[in-house]
Amino acid sequence: PDSSFDxxxxxxxxxxxxxxxxxxxxxxxxxxxxxxxxxxxxxxWSLWTLQRRVRGWAGDSFWRSARFWTASALRDLxxxxxxxxxxxxxxxxxxxxxxxxxxxxxxxxxxxxxxxxGAAFIVxxxxxxAD
Length: 131
Description:
Layout: E1 5-11, H1 20-29, E2 31-42, H2 47-57, H3 61-64, H4 71-80, E3 84-91, H5 98-104, H6 108-114, E4 121-127
Parallel strand pairs: 1-2
Antiparallel strand pairs: 2-4, 3-4
């Protein structure tokens, strides 16, 4: 039913559904006024995403039709669904080597303040306005 949830999350969903606008509108519909929607998606401009695009071009049907997002495009989806865009955060993709990841991880707070450039994953928050 309408206005059923305080929080809804869509994690790597919009990259795979045929109609992302419709999906976000539905998520908005079920939020209570003041409720939050958190969207986490694969960032369009990252090395991680480039690897998935190459897989799709090479014939991997899972990644062939995937859609990759920017923070501004996700914020537009939120606004289109009458949600107030809120916080945006980028998450780095570190090499699968423990020592390298431990060396790079302390830079996360600085990178987050600089924006989503190079982030493998982006998270945006939307808030349903109170009536």
